[in-house]
Design goal:
Rna Polymerase Sigma Factor, Chain: A; Arc Repressor Mutant, subunit A; mainly alpha
């Protein structure tokens, strides 16, 4: 099946979906082939295996793009382009088992490029920006970094503050902004964020720490 067609059939434009699976993992309950196996099958000519990868990562990809763009329609469009780029560039992936992180890096880069090309962007309410306050069990191990007192991401309570936060996020250096979006807001595992940003886990922690520090400075009049 064509990856663009498969992508367009899934997902909803109502808001940011929840995160996806960890990179290289099997399906729910540990069943199904790993990412490395699926990538190998695609490269061997079995296109249906790429449909499996799309279903596995589509929601997380849209969510990451949505956090960067603040517009669900644009996020769906960028995600579709990201899957097409991933499909056409799959042979360049050096670690097939790291497909998830590699895909999120493509999504992030395309989202940032899209944002630069379109100056006007609709703002999203804070509840949407923070995922409605929902947390997943998978983020428990990372909670120490994202739930400390004084974290501006978890203190804002209004739509106006949500807009100010998004404006502040836009002023962060790229890796700090992506680390905040992927790790603190999307609650992606540190390892997957590290793969997406092409850095170490310790570097992810540093980017999150510095990003939160910078956000406090930018938002100090509103906290």
């Amino acid at each position: 099946m064509d990856p663009k067609a498969s992508e367009s059939q899934g997902g909803e434009a109502a808001g940011p979906p929840a995160g996806g699976a960890t990179p290289g993992s099997a399906g729910p309950g540990g069943e199904g082939p790993t990412d490395g196996t699926l990538v190998g099958e695609v490269l061997a000519g079995k296109r249906q295996s790429f449909d499996v990868l799309i279903r596995k990562y589509q929601r997380q990809a849209v969510a990451v793009s949505y956090r960067l763009l603040g517009n669900s329609h644009d996020a769906m469009e960028v995600t579709q382009d990201a899957f097409l780029k991933a499909f056409s560039s799959l042979s360049t992936l050096q670690k097939p088992e790291a497909f998830g992180g590699w895909l999120m890096r493509i999504v992030s880069n395309l989202s940032l490029n899209y944002r630069r090309s379109r100056k006007s962007r609709s703002q999203l309410p804070l509840d949407d920006l923070l995922g409605g306050g929902q947390q997943t069990d998978s983020g428990g191990a990372a909670s120490e970094w994202m739930a400390q007192s004084g974290d501006p991401v978890h203190k804002l309570e209004s739509e106006e503050m949500g807009r100010k936060l998004q404006q502040a996020l836009a002023q962060l250096p790229e890796k700090q902004r992506l680390a905040i979006v992927m790790f603190t807001i999307e609650e992606m595992p540190q390892k997957q964020v590290a793969e997406a940003l092409n850095c170490s886990v310790e570097a992810v922690k540093w980017h999150v720490f510095q990003g939160r520090k910078k956000l406090r400075e930018l938002m100090k009049e509103h906290l």
